[in-house]
Amino acid sequence: MSSSRLVLFARYILTFERPRPIEHGFVLIEGSRILQVGERRHYHGPREIRMLDLGNIVLLPGLINAHCHLDYSGLKGRVSPRGGFAPWVLAMGAWSRSLTTADYMRAILEGARESLAWGTTTVCDVSTSYESLGLLATTGLRARVYFELLDLVHRSPADYWKQVQERINLVFRTHPPAERIRWGLAPHSPYSVSRELLDRLARHMDKHVSVPVTMHLAESRDEARAFRAGKGPLMERLRGLRPSFDLPHPTTPVQYLNQVGWLPKLDLAVHCNTVTDKDARLLAKNRVAVVHCPGSHAFFKHPPFPYARLRRAGVTVCLGTDSLASNRSLSMFREMQVFHRAHPNVPAREILEMATVKAAQAIGDGKRLGAVSPGFLADLIGVEGTAKAPRSFEVLYEHVLRNRKPVSFTMIQGEPQLRLSRSKNPCF
């Protein structure tokens, strides 16, 4: 039994379960799970157990990117936000139709490598190409792959639904939920998915398959205006694609989903930049978590993210990167730092929890991911420690939050990953 065990030693361990970090700590791992966590002086295991002393390292749970589009990792800097959100959405549609399967596969693998280098151990990837499910299984990453659904540009919604049904049924038969790779569904947004598709999808899920669901929601001023007044730049662009297109108004995207019975089916609502107090209460009531993407938010100059409003309502808020078409990095450290600049009064530990504990809770893995604790999966990363002992534990959390280097150590499901080159730093 001892041959399958490994003990890690580190200068500090941020468990996110204990009120204080552990100084000079150890983590005992068996297979894919953590068995024991504590101070090094209390470790008395047998000598034949493999040991790895990480030295002056801060060990913490692997980071969770709760929203990304690895398909678009090759579009960094290619799609300008000039002209606003609506033109960008249409430009992205044109770009996606021009990409080949080889382009998508290359982008997914590049995005996975960048994610691993910066300490992400779990990605929630919205897949347009549907290539992620097989590819991410080869990278070592833990992944939840959401298949994107969007019928606005299809002339025959019925034919599109037939394609969706066939694909869902095929994936359900060939890719049952696994320990490391799981799949879900991602209706793109309330304005790009027809009511007909939502109704059909709901009936299909109720009858055949229940899977995690994510959706872009209340992202921009243009979207808010489309639902509030039935006009604006987004409505004009959408009617250009389908002249008969319309949205119910006056309402909000969140309240619309609630009216059509879809809010209870949603697990992750991405963005939520324009939510009202009523919207926030509805999200909390239906236990919908919100994913904020600070880098993408800054790219579009969206209205200030209503973090305080969501937290007051009791909504779980976590972080994601979105795609490199609207961000410069897949580093969750950069996302946390951009969030901190916009919300300087939020403590460092709380921000780190948005990429660990809160993210794990948001994706339904709060009892196995996001903390360094007995029984949890051994998804761990190591960040270089401070040159001098920190004067307080809060300073230690701030040190990790400010990290601007690829991580020194990564472990996923009890398997140490190779250390990565740190000669260049393109993300900051």
Helix proportion range = 25-40%
Low-confidence stretches: 420-426
Number of discrete domains: 2
Tell me the CATH superfamily of the largest domain: Metal-dependent hydrolases
Mean pLDDT: 90
Given the structure, what is the number of helices? 15
Terminal CA distance: 44 Å
The CATH architecture designation of the largest domain is: Alpha-Beta Barrel
Bulk shape: globular
Radius of gyration: 22 Å
Number of strands: 16
CATH class of the largest domain: Alpha Beta
Report the sheet-strand fraction. Answer: 15-25%
CATH level-3 fold name of the largest domain? TIM Barrel
Structural class: alpha/beta
Q: What summary fits the major beta sheet?
A: 8 strands, mixed
SSE arrangement:
Elements: E1 5-13, E2 22-30, E3 33-39, E4 50-53, E5 57-61, E6 63-68, H1 85-98, H2 101-117, E7 120-127, H3 132-136, E8 142-149, H4 157-174, E9 181-187, H5 195-207, E10 214-217, H6 221-229, H7 233-241, H8 253-259, E11 268-271, H9 277-285, E12 289-292, H10 294-300, H11 307-313, E13 317-319, H12 332-342, H13 348-353, H14 357-362, E14 380-384, H15 393-401, E15 409-412, E16 415-416
Parallel strand pairs: 1-4, 1-5, 6-7, 7-8, 8-9, 10-11, 11-12, 12-13
Antiparallel strand pairs: 1-2, 2-3, 5-14, 14-15, 15-16
